[in-house]
Specification:
- 51% of the residues lie in helices and 13% in strands.
- The protein is of the alpha/beta class.
- It starts with a strand and ends in a 6-residue tail after the last helix.
- A six-stranded parallel beta sheet has the order 2-1-3-4-5-6, sandwiched between helices.
- The chain folds into two domains: 124 residues, Response regulator (Rossmann fold), CATH 3.40.50.2300; 80 residues, Arc Repressor Mutant, subunit A (Orthogonal Bundle), CATH 1.10.10.10.
- The radius of gyration is 18 Å and the shape is elongated.
- Helix 1 links the parallel strand 1 and strand 2.
Length: 216
Amino acid sequence: MKIRMLLVDDHAVVRSGLRMLLESESDVEIIGEMGTAAEAIKGVMELKPDVVLMDIGLPDLSGIEAAREIKERSPETAIVALTIHEDEEYFFKMLEVGASGYVPKRAAPEELLTAVRAASAGEVYLYPSLAKLLVKDFLAPDSSGKPTRTLDGLTKREHEVLTHLADGASNMEIAETLGISHKTVARHRENIMRKLNLHSRTELVKYAIRKGIIKP
């Protein structure tokens, strides 16, 4: 079964490029293109897409507000943000309103396709540099110097390993950075996922959202 998609961007040239990229994939079908938030909301209600690929900078309403409206009216529709913005403000707000993916426009086509497929499968996908922001926010200390959020009993070393994992580092790279063996890194990684009862970076993001660690 194909992933039925709606493209939302106020630039026709961008939509055309996205259509060419996505429709070259056998599992994707573009069922509509919209240039404004109002058109996107109406299109979702009429066409019932599986995934909406949406720019945040829309002319009539921000993509954040549009995403909020879409999720309220059609919770089953997944939303992937495709944007030039890579700062915390937009990133956390899009996750807060229920976006399933956040991909910068500079990302490789493969990253976008991965995000679309993950969103269609009910998962969450974040570009690696943005996943790092999430984990940094998770571990950020408050004014007293103590972590504002705990990761269900993770040790200080496990915190360090988790941060490097979120940055996309391999076990070997983490081992070299921390001065420990790659087998020790693998053991820490197993402990992290076991303690959090998670099996992937995607599940870590879902855990963070569920625990309310994402701030507006």
